[in-house]
Amino acid sequence: MSEKLAVLFVCLGNICRSPMAEAAFRAECARRNLEINCDSVGIGDWHEGQSPDPRACDVAKAHGVDIEGHKARQIREKDFYHYDLVLGLDREITDDLKRLSPPGAPAHVDLLMNYVHGKVGTSVPDPYYGGAQEFDDVWAMVAQAARALTDRLTEDAVPEKMAAAK
Ligand code: 4NP
What we know:
The chain is an alpha/beta fold. 42% of the residues lie in helices and 12% in strands. It contains six helices and four strands. It has a four-stranded parallel beta sheet with strand order 2-1-3-4. Helix 1 (17-31) runs parallel beside helix 2 (54-62). The two termini are 18 Å apart. 43% of the residues are buried. 4-nitrophenyl phosphate binds at residues 11-17, 46, 126, 128. 4-nitrophenyl phosphate binds next to loops.
């Protein structure tokens, strides 16, 4: 575990949804002056080492965040020891993460949208085979989740880590 609170966002390929979720969360943390470690990864290794999808980069850039330097990677066992929160972008991924999490590993695995009031159990849809509208819709969801998550983390996260983050 790192000294600072650490959050990992997880989708399938780590080229669309989770880099956007990470970007929205970074932007929200910057807005609130919170220092929280975060990263994003994929369940699969198909895009290992690649930059995010250009459509995801465009949407993030339109909201003031440059994600072109991110390099996709697959989740690994030690992530469940390093991160306090491991958040799946959809329900299937979250179920997979719960299976992959080693018994006794400290990370709390949850569905990202469970942090949003009224959106418990909601998946962020995969925009990969969609168009610009689908990517805009993903941004709207992950931005909402970023606001809700930072609200929750400032309220009731691991207290000494939040003290360090402020
Ligand atoms: P992501 O989107 O999980 O949001 O990064 C996808 C990217 C690639 C693939 C599927 C989803 N793919 O099948 O290669």
